[in-house]
Amino acid sequence: MRVRLQSELVKDQIMPALETLRKSTKFFSPFTQKQLILFQEYFRFLSFKEKTQITRRGEPVDFLGFILKGQVHGFVENQHKITLAEGDCLGHMACMKLAGCEVQQIDYFAKEDGYIAIIRLDDLRTLQKRDSEFSTFIYKQISLFTLNSVSQQYLGQEYQSIPEQTIVETTTKKIMFMLDQLGVKPDPEPNKKKKEKQIMEEPRNLRFFWNQLEQRDKRAFVQNCTLIETKTQELLVRAHQASNVFYIVLDGELIEFQQNQPSVIFKQGDTIGLKQFLINANQENNIISRMKCLLLRITKSNLDDIATVSGQSVCSIITMLTRFEAQKLKELFEKQFKDEQQGLQRKVVALVDELSHTFKSVSKKDQQSASQLMNNFFEIDVNKMKQDDKSAASQLEKQIIAPLYLLDVYKDLVAKRYYQPNEVKDRKDPMFESGLSIFIRDKLSEQRTQAQKKKEELKKARKLGKTIKEEDDDIEIHMDPNQLVLEELNNDYYKIVDERDKFQEYTYLLEQQIKQMKDEFKEMKEEHQRMQTQIRKNEMHKELLTLDLASQLLQPTDRTTKKKHTLYDNYLVQVQENKKFKKTVQVAEKVLTMSQLHKLQS
Question: Using CA of residue 573, residue 576, residue 582, residue 584, what is the dihedral sign?
């Protein structure tokens, strides 16, 4: 069966809401008026009521959604974890293909009435081919939103910390003087044959994401990036410069000096300036190479060149970089978490040793029971800690930490299937296993019932001789092939019936017009004949009166002598010629009339 998803909001309601979000949210603030119109065209706007379930844990993530109005509560095991408001996003991490995000991890319920803008992930991939420029812009915004979400979850701070804007002209002379003193030379010509080889020699994390790209995307990336080499103590990035470029470190180390904060060292496999590139901000600090380094330089114009050839390739590249940055944020959190847990475990072990020396010795059974109680209290294996100084949290590397604002990082939520016993009835629905989320399933079922009612009304209208205009829909979700073929045949049949009705109405109108034209033409012809006869009579009478020969018309021709009156006989000859000419004109008019009628009927 062919199921179509329709927008439930009127265009007059959509644009004011998008304009409000552009003024009040960070995600929509970079949108232009043209991009808002494209957003309105490609997305579907659906309404939801209070207590409507938007997502269900365990179901696949199949859409990208933006809340335009209202609030949505997120629950994990019946515990409230998060509240999403206007401008928040759903499904962005699945769009960026982060590990463990292909399955819903949180149950979202509507707190109040509102509406949401959604687009299915399959349609978003199709959009990459249809409109590469807009899809690239959307992917950059989703990438920034995803990295901000991961940074909030793991580090408790925003990813896009925009520095204060400074005037470039005031610092250009000083920076140019420093560059002249350092002896910076122009970038060497890139060696395209060695680029891909250099990328393949990257560390495990970057190589892992790089290998997941298709060969077409790899080729497009390599052909449009630039391979550069820096010397020791060479200035790579100037502070407060416009960030339209970012780098990937292939070899060597670089250092970033920060005010009132420890310096940051960039090693092999790190990215430089990606955050500022995504948010279109200026660089915060100077970055200098500590040794001879090899880097890949990617500019905004490079991505635009890739987008002109293939919008799908540039979206895949942005997705790869986003996954890599999210993995770095996760590793940073795990390192901090590991250090904290190791420090806590050392304190616990020291406390246990101190207690064992302070108090009297106890029996082995009491010691084991006390150790078991302490293990259950601290959730730490003290004996194992003595043998191997590793945190239990270090095993998180083998697990998938469920993202998307998940605060409880100690549970592996991805490995479970969250089907409650009361959900067995829902699972019998054939649409449950079709890869659609619960919100889209409910909306499709509502629209399916509405479509059925419209079909019944259409049948009744056809019986009464009326026609109803059917609206065309853009998004199509294909279900059972047999039902799909039957539905297509029915749709084709109704289209043919509608076309036949329209043709019959058009034919009837043409026939009425032709009949009316014939009657008018006949009346005009008769009137023309009467006028011509009257004109000839008047002219003849006038001519005879002027010549004073009217009395001669009363004299007949002398047939015995065969003498004719000259004027009268010439007049009769002229009348006969006029009759012949009149017949010729009538025949020509009939021929023209028949040809015109034939054209109208055809």
Answer: negative
Specify the amino acid at residue 480. D
Spatial CB neighbours of 416, under 8 Å, sequence gap ≥ 6: 58
Query: Contact at 8 Å (CB) between 111 and 83?
Result: yes
Residue in this structure with the two tokens 């919008």, named with its chain if needed: 311
Q: How far apart, in whole angstroms, are the C-alpha atoms of residue 543 and residue 571?
A: 11
φ/ψ (deg, to 5) at 109: -125, 145
Q: C-alpha distances in angstroms, 338 versus 142, 372, 505?
A: 30, 23, 79
Contact 242, 339 (CB under 8 A): no
Partnered with residue 248 across adjacent β-strands are 271, 296
Is 171 exposed, middle or buried (CB count within 10 Å of its CB: 0-12, 13-18, 19+)? middle
Tokens for 58?
Answer: 């365990």
* β 287-289/114-120 pair status: unpaired
CB atoms within 10 A of CB 314: 28
Helices (H), 270-410: 274-279, 300-309, 311-358, 364-378, 382-387
Mean pLDDT by 10-residue block, N- to C-terminus, for the chain (602 residues)? 58 78 78 84 84 82 84 83 81 80 82 84 81 83 81 66 31 36 40 44 55 75 77 76 75 77 76 77 77 80 76 78 77 76 73 62 54 46 44 38 34 35 41 58 75 78 61 43 60 74 79 84 86 81 62 50 55 74 78 70 60
Any idea which residue has 């060597």 for tokens? 252
What is the Cα–Cα distance from 403 to 414, expressed in whole angstroms? 10
Q: State the DSSP H helix or E strand holding residue 191, giving kind and residue range, or none if neither.
A: none
Nearest to residue 195, comparing CAs of 122, 302, 94, 107? Answer: 302
Q: How far is CA 337 from CA 76, 184, 396, 410, 431, in A?
A: 22, 41, 10, 11, 42
What phi and psi values does residue 551 have, to the nearest 5 degrees? -70, -25
Q: What pTM, to 2 d.p., does this model score?
A: 0.41
pLDDT of residue 601: 62
The amino acid at residue 119 is I
CB 218 within 8 Å of CB 196: yes
- Segment (H or E) for 540: helix 481-547
- Measured over the CA atoms of residue 119, residue 1, residue 103 and residue 112, the dihedral's sign is positive
2-5 vs 475-478, strand pairing mode: antiparallel
**252/73 Cα distance (integer angstroms):** 47
Q: Which amino acid is at 46?
A: L
Q: Which residues pair with 476 in a beta bridge?
A: 4
Q: Specify the pLDDT at position 598.
A: 67
**pLDDT value at position 330?**
76
Q: Which of 517, 441, 522, 434 is nearest to 478 (CA)?
A: 434
**What contacts 86, CB < 8 A, 6 or more positions away?**
21, 24, 25, 67, 68, 69, 70
The backbone torsions φ and ψ at residue 368, rounded to the nearest 5 degrees and listed phi first, read: -65, -40
In 214-310, which ranges are continuous DSSP H helix? 215-224, 274-279, 300-309
- CATH 2.60.120.10 at 168-309, yes or no: yes
Place of tokens 């232009």: 32
Domains of the chain, by residue range, sit at: 168-309, 498-601
Q: What DSSP state is assigned to residue 190? A: P
